[in-house]
Amino acid sequence: MDVDNETSEKLASITSISNQRERITAYLSLLSAILSPSPTTSSDLITFGRHFTTSTSMATVVGRRVLGAYVTALCAGTTLPRTGTAALSLDEEGSSDVEKWDAIGKEAFNGTKGEEVRRDVVEGVLGQGGISGWCDEQITVLRHLHSHLLQLEEDWLGAAKALMQIPLEGTSRLISDEEKLAVYMKIVRLLLECGEWGQAQTYFSRASLLIHTTTDKETNLSFKLSQARLFDFSARFNEAAQRYHEVSFESAIDEEDRMQMLKAAVTTSILAPAGPQRSRILATLNRDDRVHTALHPSLSTMLRKMLLEYIVRPEEVKEFEEGLEEHQKAKVEGGGTVLERAVREHNVGACGKVYDNVSFEALGAILELDAEAAETTARRMIEQGRLRAWIDQPLHLLYFESRTTHDTDADAQGTAGGLGVVKEEKEIEPVSWTERWDDRIRATSIKVETIAETIQQRGLIPTVPVS
């Protein structure tokens, strides 16, 4: 007769005991016998655990007491934090035996194969289905233990999936919003660790509905950091930079980790689409002394170039790209990586600081694109309100509409020969090209009329008598 069948027979014989106290004692004696000496295989412990978790006729008092001791022994000797939904509530007698079963469990899983047997037992109990509803609390602790063991092996996705199996809604057990939030945030962190940001976003959305229920600093900090990373993964780099920079000031984080957050803030601000929002973030980061003293010089140099709208050279782009994470090197629509698009758009704006107008062929040479692609890039920026410029398509020219310096001569100010017709600066709105063309024709006609009236008033053109 094999040991597994022997254990099953012993469990069956104990079930026939009518007195509950005697039955509890018999179950606990059998559990102690299986754990001492250290088990070399998991089969007996799996059989014992499944006897309770799959039973639909188990007396609740007996089941909770014995399964509580079983779970306590399995968790013994691990670094699993026994808080929140990972904490096991025991009756008065069970609580008095916690130290005893903790000691037995430590001894049982202390051998060379101890951790392997522990994991096999947990997976064997949880992995075969058919679990009864009366033991939700004990099963929840086992799922936390399973996730913890997988994390030690750096199986982040497996650890997250173990926590996903925990029933937080519609169970007989009352779970507080704060405990639900803690589980959701653990899942989010694990999914982000393995790059599954799509699933992470789902659980983060659930957590965001509960974040107001907690005052725990660690949970709030974890929420902010997860939000920053999700923005980063989803290429919302402006928002990511703001969140990373906020987190970099948190004194609860180690200095080294704060510098990592600051580095991430600078990196994502550089990857953000060119425009007013990014300029504000760049200016904020540039005022942070830590950027220039604690980070690599190449990062602060790139930051200043982006802020001051200097043209960025290919060799500088290559050096910066070496420090990017894999998802930040993703290809984007229109060709190139996220960084290449960000630098191209930045260089288009930087050209406006140097030139009044530029041909698309020359702009393409600066951006390392053909003329058509350069025009597409500029047109997209204008449509999105991120570039003050207009396009002369017949001449294939891009005209920039704003300057950083205000010259005093008439030509630079956009006046017509000192006649007082001043060029008006208007915000560029994302309207259709036809409407914009009509507006320009209308504005030009008004200027021509104004110039003609001024000439007549000043008598600059002598009147020729008609003969």
From TrEMBL:
Major subcellular site: cytoplasm
Keyword hit for Cytoplasm: yes
The keyword Disulfide bond is annotated on this UniProt entry: no
Subcellular location: Cytoplasm; Nucleus
GO cellular component: COP9 signalosome; cytosol
Keywords linked to the UniProt accession: Cytoplasm, Nucleus, Signalosome
Top-level taxon of the source organism: Eukaryota
PANTHER family noted in UniProt: 26S PROTEASOME NON-ATPASE REGULATORY SUBUNIT 12/COP9 SIGNALOSOME COMPLEX SUBUNIT 4, COP9 SIGNALOSOME COMPLEX SUBUNIT 4
Family, similarity comment: Belongs to the CSN4 family.
Protein's UniProt name: COP9 signalosome complex subunit 4
